[in-house]
């Protein structure tokens, strides 16, 4: 848990005595000159932390510290290399994302990178399990991003250009007591495609997919800081992002062969924008942070659109949220501190649709097999929530520290009030060794698609989870350290699809996840740093009606990440990142059956869900940087080679629908959502 530093002085005055000997007549006269150096409290977090900088420089992350989070223990991309992060056996949907204390729409683009310019990051914390009382409505992990404060400097501009995005970053002092920065980035992916281009598979065979608008994304951040006085600051944050793509699917595409209704044009757009105002108050033993924010999040999918028809399908989701949060940290005495949090989220969600109702969850192997009737209409829901959390931190002996907390959460939609106890205990064996234990309960409201009227069941209760962790960490000589942490999590009241019922979903699935994370780390000394992280884990889900227990689709029994970085001199630095992990669990296709809705069309027959695995995933990324100059301006040249030995990692299997002509034709094709060996050149210049 991180807290703002508790400084007793916000202004440091240095008195400098300058003795001037003018001439013999004035030899005994002294002149005293007072030089006052103003130290602004906000300057404390205007620089990136050492740990976050390591993630920025990590090979394969393209300067993106959040994408580099996949090299941390217990984190895996669910469903393939471009998937959302699943942490310690939980679903990606169990996570929450906070940016500068306030909720975020999403923090990862659909095409691989996060929404943040590397120049805006100050710190990034991943709370994998057993997190404290400052967060609510999460049963998985907390991604807590801190954007750095603007610097009080002359206005400077940084231009970034890589193979995959281009950006501009402007920062500087606005007045004596205020500063700002603005960031804007745009994907360069459209440069790699042509409108009307037909895609081909790995063998050069046409896929029946035509690019109408290439994959594209952009994002922006702006931050303005006002140092009101020695005890108060005001911050305004503006963030936003958008992802889009459009394509045409001919009758020869796999999508149309499997679901003929979807032949035609398709368009996808996802975007959000948010505005937040934060007030920080600092006193001798007290820090208060209060924020209010607005968030608008939209996603639209149109498909099956044809030039001669007007009855295509669409799904439009919109969420508006007003957030009110406050946190107070008060130092009672030398040994004790109390942290109190409260938040209220006024949220309204609207779903407009003309589509087939697919009743399925992430535990079903193929949603296409649970295709319901075509439905059309609008469903709305007010899913307001609130929480209050109190945590007491007590250093009750030189070797023992406790954290005893309680959180009360309220979900208006399901009319549930849930109280969660949370406990942490630290034993400091010596100055370099600590043993930690945590336990707590957590909950979150069900995903919207499971509780909306018509498409879901409004009576579903909130999901619940219990976390236990036990860890050991030791600092060694020469900046070496290692840690090992075990965890055990239970998950209850997960949704289960009930397509033959009138309610569509019930609280009928539970789960467990357990494992151990080990990391050995070396901070930068002797011009190099690195770490090796190993995770051993198991994640299962159980159908409570049948008692059948299966591996979770994101279950990854083994993960290895090794990162190395070396400074070759004043100008050159570089390193590598090697990743290996167990192959993704998948559901095998064991047969073929006729499509009951369309003649001469076929569907797969599946075996036991998630009962087999792809081959072990592994990949090597290499990165080098060189400090340089361009027209006298400071610059940086970045060279990256991703998937350096061209490993083809399978992430998806399906029928080869073009070859299947009867129920006796079992032809399987494997797909990779990764890429072949890919070089990248980037350049950054500041002026």
Keywords:
687 residues; mainly beta; four-stranded mixed sheet; 3 helices; 58% strand; disordered N terminus
What does this structure look like?
The radius of gyration is 27 Å and the shape is globular. The chain has 687 residues and is mainly beta. It contains 3 helices and 39 strands. The strands form 7 sheets. It has a 22-stranded antiparallel beta barrel. A 4-stranded mixed β-sheet has the order 6-5-8-7, with no helix packed on it. Strands 1-2 form a two-stranded antiparallel sheet.
Secondary structure layout:
Blueprint: E1 13-16, E2 33-36, H1 50-56, E3 75-77, E4 85-87, E5 96-99, E6 102-103, E7 121-127, E8 142-147, E9 156-161, E10 165-175, E11 178-187, E12 198-200, E13 206-229, E14 232-249, H2 254-258, E15 264-282, E16 286-305, E17 313-331, E18 336-358, E19 371-382, E20 385-397, E21 400-411, E22 416-430, E23 433-444, H3 448-451, E24 463-475, E25 480-498, E26 504-525, E27 528-543, E28 549-551, E29 558-567, E30 572-581, E31 585-586, E32 589-594, E33 602-606, E34 612-613, E35 617-630, E36 633-642, E37 652-655, E38 668-671, E39 678-686
